[in-house]
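FORM 12-B: Structure-to-Sequence Request
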């Protein structure tokens, strides 16, 4: 029993770390849903079925659904592929200021 919990815990750590380093947001969301489902299984192994059901319903199902809907609504997968900046949300387009670093022309 203890060995099974340790194995599942190591899997959880690996999947959580994997979700951090995913290049695709959709894949990261799927991995986080899998982590939540494994947490639910861990609660079931530890004889807490009420917590396991709650984690499966809220953590795995509802949260993953919300993440997927947000990704679909914001089209963030498409915007990441066309060169937008993840932190600012702005597109990285070349500046059209005539080559001047200040943006104006020298007279």
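FORM 12-B RESPONSE
SEQUENCE OUT:
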């Amino acid at each position: 029993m203890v060995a099974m919990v340790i194995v599942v815990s190591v899997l959880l750590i690996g999947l959580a770390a994997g979700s951090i380093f995913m290049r695709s947001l959709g894949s990261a969301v799927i991995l986080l849903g899998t982590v939540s489902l494994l947490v639910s299984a861990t609660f079931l192994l530890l004889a807490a079925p009420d917590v396991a059901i709650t984690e499966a319903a809220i953590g795995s199902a509802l949260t993953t659904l919300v993440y997927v809907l947000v990704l679909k609504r914001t089209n963030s997968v498409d915007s990441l592929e066309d060169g937008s900046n993840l932190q600012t949300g702005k597109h990285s387009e070349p500046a059209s200021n005539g080559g001047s670093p200040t943006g104006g022309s020298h007279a």
